[in-house]
Write a structure and sequence with these properties.
The protein has a 4-stranded antiparallel β-sheet, with helices on one face. About 15% of the residues lie in helices and about 40% in strands. The protein has one helix spanning about 15-25, and strands at about 30-35, 40-45, 50-60, 65-70. It has about 70 residues and is mainly beta. It has 1 helix and 4 strands, in the order αββββ.
Length: about 70
């Protein structure tokens, strides 16, 4: 395994596959939608507690910026 490289000054947008893998590693399941919009991804998934959530994910870092439980 290689150490994590420092992000370049102009960070590249992560691919849908990278976002999927990042969220899966974070415990999200049943990911049904990953859509790039305005520099961030909108994602629909189940969280670790099994609740259906809508996520807003940073397109450069993969960090979850917001998580809302869907009704």
């Amino acid at each position: 395994a290689q150490p994590a490289a420092a992000a370049p000054a102009a960070a590249a947008t992560l691919t849908v596959r990278q976002i999927y893998d990042t969220l899966t590693a974070a415990g999200y399941r049943n990911i049904t939608e990953i859509e790039l919009e305005h520099g961030r991804y909108d994602v629909k998934a189940d969280n670790a507690q099994g609740q259906r959530v809508k996520l807003r994910v940073d397109a450069q870092s993969g960090a979850v910026l917001r998580s809302r439980i869907k009704d």
